[in-house]
Amino acid sequence: MKRLLLVVLTSSWLVACSSVPEPTTHTTVAAAAINGQQQQLQQLDQWRLRGQMALFDLRRDDRHGLYIDWFYSDELLTMRFSHPLRGTIARLEQRKGYAELIDHDDNSYYGRNAQELLLRYFNIDLPVDMLNSVVMGKQLPTMAERKYQLQSTDTQQLALLSDFVMVAADQLWNAQLRQYQPVNGIYVPHSIDLTAQTWRLKLKVSEWKF
Questions:
Q1: Topology annotation, domain 11-209
Q2: pLDDT tens digit string along 178-199?
Q3: Separation CA 72–CA 3 (nearest Å)
Q4: Model pTM?
């Protein structure tokens, strides 16, 4: 097991993540507005994002930053973690029932899924399968205390998932999804903040593709 080998990004970005103005949220919205947004997201069978990720180890009061290139489809998940000066830190690939992590020295590690390898190699326990849905703003049945942002379009009003709590990876996570912007006509969040008892994850998306 190796300690997290990530280089801290600029502190200004970490501070900026926590200083974004709070949007107006709603706990009671029309089902049609929720379904309208979720149906658009369900139509996407694959996506790719690039951005910056900050990880906070709340047990040790440590913070680490990296760049991420993240691709997802029903058959394949890939994550490339990198730093602009050090290059690729690790590459992670997951298929059904199989996952492989290749580190910066081209050593390969194998496991059942991405979450298992991140825990084994970096000692971070993140609910990767849940994150594949959360980063898009998809609603899951196990989410509670949901709040929404309302977004009007030319044809309808959409309810964009904004806040929720959820149990995953044996922890209770509080989530905030912010800075929704349309990509090819579909609204997706560009700021994701997940906090549990031992970990906090902040993701700032610079590019979505689907």
A1: outer membrane lipoprotein receptor (LolB), chain A (2.50.20)
A2: 999 999 999 999 999 999 998 8
A3: 26
A4: 0.86
